[in-house]
Every structure is written in C-alpha cells, then in structure tokens.
Amino acid sequence: MYYIHAQEFKKAGNRPFPISPAGLGIATTSVFIDPAISGAVNNRVELKASIGLRFVGVGNIRVLVRIWRAGKEIYYGLESNVFDNNIILNVETVDVAPLGVQNYQLIIENQTPATTAFVAGPLVFSATAYSG
User: Fold this and answer.
1) Which of 3, 63, 111, 126 lies 20 to 30 angstroms, CA to CA, from 51?
2) pLDDT tens across 45-71, in order?
3) What are phi and psi of 42, to 5 degrees?
4) pTM of this structure
C-alpha cells in the first residue's frame, strides 16, 4: 500500500460568497496517482475540507459545498439548519480517480436569500491517494 498527500491551507480573510448556482471556488488541491506503482489501479482518493464560515442574517442558513474533478462535479452536500453565525464546516468524501494527476476544486454557495455569507477562515482542503 502507498499513499500520496497534498494539502492547501489558506488564510481566508473575510471573503463573501454569492447566492448563485455558480458558487465560489475557494480552494484547489492536486494528487498524482502513479501508474508505475503496482496496485495503483485500485486507488482511492480521500478528500477532506474544513471551512470557517461567518453569516450575517437571520433564520435557517443553507450552504451548498461542491467538489469538482476535471470539470465534473463528484460531490455535493447541503448544510442546513445553521443557526450559529460562526461555524467550521467539515467535509469528507472518497473518490475513485483515474491514474495520473488529479486536480480538485472546492466550491461553496450560499442558498439563503437576505443573508450574506463569508469564508472567514481557517480553510484547509486536502487529497490523499491510497492504493493497494
């Protein structure tokens, strides 16, 4: 068994993200799945994200998180019933990816009218490839 790990950490600041179907790309990460290593065809890529969020507004706030690989959505999750104005949202999923370099993009979208949402930090997005 082998694994390769890549991680992006950003100090997010106070970046608003929109109410729109396009969302906002907030982080990227890449991992290389080496075809020369035996067992690489049976790979799994573990994707993890921790996103510090701040909300301005009242009521049930809904946030959609998406992960894309090679221009295609491979994960989406809706966080709802968020009544706290400051949260850290954690996301974890597993992807079965082809061999070679895989690039992942983390996208977030506010789905609650009359609210403003900010990526306030911390922001961590990682990919770890396992095979064997």
Assistant:
1) 3
2) 999 999 998 888 877 788 999 999 999
3) -100, 45
4) 0.85
